[in-house]
Specification:
The protein has 296 residues and is α/β, with parallel strands linked by helices. The protein is built from ten helices and eight strands. The protein is globular.
Length: 296
């Protein structure tokens, strides 16, 4: 049963987040809105060693623990936001937690729609991964992300063999958006209880990110991409999340391909619940940290 905290949070979100973005016109206004500054908040810099570099014209922030000169583990973290919104405070809080655990966390600031599309993201992210491998072997590198960022992390991993690069040792995908077509038969029923996501708004974001390409293309909908050979993968999803059915479908596809996969399904939990201040979120964050920092 869902905790009182997650039920209360869902109620608050339901009463405050039903925006004009549920209409096509409202979604297009949100997509066209000026982007916010993706720089980490000041408290991240005070708590950790933060550096910034440019890769192919895009920013990458690296967050390192203060007390570890050369972290033995690294995570590439790709944030959510429907491919149209910048990284937010909840994302930075999880990045900070991973750094506290002794990880180096690289946060690529990939270009967002409508100014950018998926076609620019993959060369950029591939170079970020390539550069990270100059410092650490692949068995010390993990990929993580939430929502759109989690889908992008999966698609990036699927694309790495084409670049001749080794895959990461592990992936952690939080509420991954893996099918941009949003045609799963469970969506209408879940939409009635999901207080965060709007299918109409998501489809507009997906079309902007696709830049005229087919929404079912594996780079945009990685549930349609190759599953064989992927690293051990952890999936986090709540039953009040519009992506619930597609994540179950992804779980089945990974199992069928022989990939080691763990499904963490939280009854009554909402979209990206591991980023929320709830008992379900706290439990998930502990598991995510343990998975990505590796054995000690």
């Amino acid at each position: 049963m869902a905790s009182l905290a997650v039920r209360a949070l869902a109620g608050v979100l339901r009463s405050t987040r039903r925006r004009p973005a549920e209409t096509v016109a409202g979604a297009r206004r949100r997509i066209a809105r000026a982007k916010t500054d993706p720089a980490p908040p000041g408290w991240v810099g005070r708590r950790h060693r933060v550096t910034r570099r440019e890769v192919g014209g895009f920013r990458v922030y690296t967050v390192r623990p203060v007390r570890v000169a050369a972290p033995e583990r690294a995570v590439v973290y790709l944030h959510g936001g429907s491919y149209v919104s910048e990284i937010g405070l909840a994302h930075w809080a999880l990045v900070s937690r991973l750094a506290d655990a002794g990880c180096r966390v690289d946060v690529p600031v990939y270009g967002l729609a409508p100014q950018h599309t998926h076609r620019e993201a993959f060369p950029f992210l591939t170079e970020v991964h390539r550069g990270l491998l100059d410092d650490l072997p692949p068995d010390r590198v993990g990929f993580a992300g939430d929502s759109a960022g989690a889908g992008l992390a999966l698609a990036l991993a699927q694309s790495l063999p084409e670049s001749g690069l080794p895959l990461p040792a592990r992936m952690v995908l939080v509420s991954p958006w893996v099918d941009a077509t949003l045609t799963h038969p469970s969506i209408p029923a879940v939409a009635a209880v999901d207080p965060m996501l709007s299918r109409v708004a998501l489809l507009e974001s997906a079309r902007a990110w696709a830049g005229g390409d087919d929404l079912a293309h594996p780079r945009i909908s990685p549930v349609n991409g190759p599953m064989a050979g992927l690293p051990p993968t952890d999936l986090y999803i709540g039953t009040r999340d519009l992506f619930h059915g597609d994540v179950l479908r992804l779980h089945g596809a990974l199992l069928a391909a022989g990939t080691r996969v763990r499904l963490d399904e939280a009854v009554g939990a909402i979209h990206v619940h591991p980023l929320t201040p709830t008992p379900e979120g706290r439990r998930a964050r502990r598991r995510i940290t343990v998975a990505l920092r590796g054995p000690r």
